[in-house]
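note to self — DONT lose this again. spent like an hour looking for the file last time. sequence + predicted structure for the chain T wanted, 154 res
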Amino acid sequence: MPIKSFQAARQKLVTKRRKSLLVKDYMTRNLITFSTEQSILEVMRILIRNKISGGPVVDDLSRLVGIVSEADCIKHLSESKYFNQPFFDRKVKDNMTVEVDTITSDKTIFDAATLFHKTNRRRLPVLEQGRLVGQISRQDVVKAALLLRSQRWR
């Protein structure tokens, strides 16, 4: 008795529009930014009021000059207590992180994922021609990965 194939007829491949993989399509554009001359007390209030853990520090031309975070504020509080100095009169420029890992908007989410893995950062400022245009977080990358239909088995 000959063996019959129990495989059904193959479906025709339907090419769907591929979702974009670029950072600029998943980043957050409306950011809360800080200036170098703001006080740490003001930064703390803004962080708490907006339920964020940090934000980029920019100059007048929207160029990134650093990042200030809760960790920077806590470090400053700790040092101020240790040296018995007032801490609310200090400026952002004295407490921000200057060496910032960034990504450009034309990179893919896979590039962002790799950078997140290598640097252990939670967020990356996104630059276009040296100017801050947005920010992408780890969560943004995970959401983008879920939207990729090519990674699904169905």
